[in-house]
Give the backbone structure.
Amino acid sequence: MGNTTSTIAGIIAGSAIGAALGILFAPDKGENTRKKIAEKAIAAKDNLEETAIDLRDRAATTLASKSDTLEHKMNHIVSDASYKTEEVITTLEKKLAELKLKNKKLQKTS
């Protein structure tokens, strides 16, 4: 975002400097100079709008990418947790089977 902010500041500063230099060195009549300044202002406005649209599109793309990455990570975490859950259940089932076997042996000896 820092580069984009610098770019926008550069465009605005460049437009202002260009307009000022145009007025200072204008060999034309005042009417023509005002017309040129208006045209330059419109061009600067259009350029600024394009930059803003580009910035918005880049931000949307970045957010979408981050969202996809987060979703992928969450899916990975859920999948890992599912495997761990299966391991715990399997271990508990083995322990339960061992306990049932021990209990059966205890019941036969009584």
Remarks:
- Residues 30-109 form the longest helix (80 residues).
- The mean pLDDT is 81.
- The radius of gyration is 36 Å.
